[in-house]
Amino acid sequence: MASKRVLKRDVNNVMGDIIDAAYIHQAANPKEDPAKSEAIVDEAIATFDDLIAKINKKDVEDNKQHFKEVNKEFETKANALVEKVNAL
User: Fold this and answer.
1) Could you tell me the superkingdom of the organism this chain comes from (predicted)?
2) From CA 88, how far away is CA 73, in angstroms rounded?
């Protein structure tokens, strides 16, 4: 498992890319309803906050297992958000 710093960087980069993609779609298609892309941005920000809070959690018994679970949750949520962006 990579370090906590690398996991935080990955979460930041991926969620940032998802937000960028939603805003790019919104700029490229000004006639469509911006509420859909704004909802994706809001969900990405909430997911980012949730994952960072879980990464920073101090009182875990097995750090390695905890980070594996956080990483798995990160991949699942990121893939779901990418699917939503692609569906726009």
Assistant:
1) Bacteria
2) 23
